[in-house]
UniProtKB/TrEMBL annotation:
Pfam family, any one: Ycf54
Full protein name: Protochlorophyllide synthesis factor Ycf54
The family this protein is said to belong to: Belongs to the ycf54 family.
InterPro entries in UniProt: Ycf54, Ycf54-like_sf
Residues passing through the membrane, by range: none
PANTHER family reported for this sequence: PTHR35319, YCF54
Length: 107
């Protein structure tokens, strides 16, 4: 199983109100320069939030929601501090509740 970490908020907040695109573009550039595999994704209307284990977070999010998901917990902590008005969480996948968290929801 893989541990995924995420920040989630309304899709409008993450894609329109905050300069998230710039942050993700810079991180992608850095990864390419260092020959590092991409380990983060912007997920619109993430299905993993519909699971029972994440229902408390999901109930607090304005809809439609979006999330930045990563296998790097430090990056997610950075985003939480940078974006401020987001919820943070984590999950393991694949699992019974989340067979393949990113395959069907990645944007």
């Amino acid at each position: 199983m893989t541990d995924y970490h995420f920040v989630a908020a309304s899709e409008r907040f993450l894609t329109v109100e905050e300069p998230l695109e710039e942050v993700l573009r810079e991180r992608r550039r850095n990864y390419e320069e260092n020959s590092k595999a991409i380990d983060f994704w912007l997920v619109r209307q993430p299905a993993f939030l519909e699971t029972n284990e994440l229902s408390a977070i999901n109930s607090q999010l304005p809809k439609p929601a979006a999330a930045v998901v990563s296998t790097d917990p430090t990056f997610i902590t950075f985003l939480k501090l940078r974006l401020e008005y987001v919820l943070e969480g984590s999950f393991e996948a694949p699992s019974a509740a989340i067979p393949d968290a990113l395959a069907s929801t990645a944007a």
